[in-house]
Design brief:
The radius of gyration is 23 Å and the shape is globular. The protein contains 15 helices and 15 strands. The chain is of the alpha/beta class.
């Protein structure tokens, strides 16, 4: 077996006890090996330390290859094309959908990092979505957006702050519609500071808001520096009280934890606090991490990166799932018995199953682009939905049109990164935006693996 080398799509994740996972981003094969072996393979060392049998096994799994770099790239491109075509066919058959309502662009907080600040001081906030608007949406436009009503459908209430009292009429009309259609679930992403005024609309029953996401920014000190109303009053206590109330209401509650580079100690303190308050690990409460800025091992101190990894795994153990939105990665550990398609897209941009509508009758496919009229993918008025050219452009944002991603060993786990941030930071949606994706992929895979080890 001459001319063998480590695959360009080889990844290594250390899982403890001097063992590591080799996972190949092209073959999607995952194997447990000694960390020394994994490190030598990842570093491109001479392969003489491997026996003939080990070489044969690693070659079969794809961790080693006899192909040149150019040929391996060409073969991977063919594989991505096949997966992309297969995904399009499955999407057409898939019975699922998500309609998100920007109920208002108004908010009772003034967080320094809020992406809606990019709308500018001259942005004239429109009135909140009215009940009549909601009724018209369902009677005149819903069937045009979703010609085949999916069996698995989610309505998401968004803003601004969706639970402001002025939004009550629109919310009640939305909930009235869902009560007639049991397959539709309703979620809200809220700062929860006005929860007590809207609590009658929240509960596990049909026709109520059944899933609630609340964001915390770290421990009380960091949170109250960032998530503040214009009055400057602290909000940490109010949000914790709201989470307690949600637990009592028995709704699915998700805590979105903002991760601030350089302030990882605050994240650890928040995790400790949530555990002390019996929220972390509560069966009705989930947690996931959301970096505010790029978090990578290269851009943070080794100490910060270590805190991030340890805190990630601690939360995974105590909540029985990794604190990320990468649940699909668990399936890759079951590839011996099950098959699934990896990601060729980062999100629902360009798809026919996800839309965001605002009070002006504008349609978007990205929360961060809502309100920017030049980023609309469509409009609805006078009884008709009209899609714009941008929707077609967005449909082309996948790995086949991201040449730099085709060379990446985690492309099929990432899908190219956020297209909105790629446009803002790198000048085009047809650029990658790596953000913290590689670190989250590695830590998520490690957490799922360790969970399986405990079960076995």
């Amino acid at each position: 077996m001459k001319n063998l080398r480590a695959s360009s799509y080889l990844n290594q994740v250390d899982v403890g006890d001097e063992t590591s996972l080799l996972f190949n981003g092209a073959t999607l094969c995952i194997d447990l090996v000694p960390t020394e072996y994994a490190s030598r393979l990842s570093n491109g060392d001479d392969l003489s330390f491997l026996s003939a049998e080990e070489k044969q096994h690693l070659l079969k799994r794809g961790h080693l290859t006899a192909l040149t770099h150019k040929r391996e790239l060409e073969e991977f491109w063919k594989q991505v094309r096949f997966i992309s075509e297969k995904s399009i066919k499955l999407d057409r058959k898939r019975k699922m959908g998500n309609l998100s309502f920007i109920l208002t662009y108004n908010c009772n907080l003034s967080c320094s990092y809020c992406y809606q600040k990019s709308l500018g001081d001259n942005f004239k906030i429109p009135p909140p979505m009215s009940g009549e608007f909601v009724d018209s949406l369902f009677s005149n436009y819903f069937s045009q957006l979703f010609p085949k009503v999916p069996d698995n459908f989610l309505f998401t209430l968004f803003g601004g702050e969706p639970l402001l009292p002025n939004n009550r009429e629109a919310i009640t009309r939305i909930l009235a519609y869902t009560k007639k259609h049991p397959s539709i679930r309703v979620s809200v992403a809220t700062n929860a500071t006005t929860l007590s005024e809207m609590v009658d609309l929240i509960g596990p029953e049909k026709g109520k808001i059944q899933n609630v996401q609340v964001t915390l920014d770290g421990d009380q000190l960091l949170h109250d520096e960032n998530r503040i109303p214009r009055s400057g009053k602290p909000t940490f206590g109010a949000m914790i009280a709201a989470i307690r109330q949600l637990i009592q209401l028995k709704v699915n509650t998700v805590i979105r934890m903002h991760i601030h580079p350089g302030r990882l100690g605050s994240s650890k303190k928040l995790v400790d606090y949530l555990e002390k308050e019996k929220m972390l690990g509560h069966p009705g409460v989930g947690v996931y991490f959301a970096p505010i800025n790029t978090f990578t091992s290269e851009k943070n101190s080794p100490a910060d990166f270590d805190i991030f990894c340890r805190t990630f795994q601690e939360v995974a153990v105590k909540t029985n799932r990794p604190p990320s939105n990468l649940d699909f990665m668990n399936k890759f550990l079951e590839m011996q018995t099950k098959r699934m398609l990896p990601k060729v897209r980062y999100c629902g941009l360009g798809s026919d199953i996800f839309y965001v509508v605002d009070p002006l009758g504008d349609i978007y496919q990205c929360y961060e682009e809502a309100g920017h009229k030049d980023r609309r993918i469509g409009t609805f008025s006078n009884g008709k939905v009209k899609f714009l050219a941008l929707k077609e452009m967005y449909s082309k944002r996948h790995l086949l049109n991201l040449p730099e991603c085709i060379r990446c060993s985690t492309a099929l786990f990432c899908g190219g990164g956020c297209p909105c941030h790629a446009r803002i930071h790198n000048g085009s949606i047809f650029k990658s935006y790596c953000h913290q994706n590689r670190e989250f992929i590695a830590q998520t895979l490690k957490a799922f693996f360790l969970k399986q080890e405990v079960k076995s």
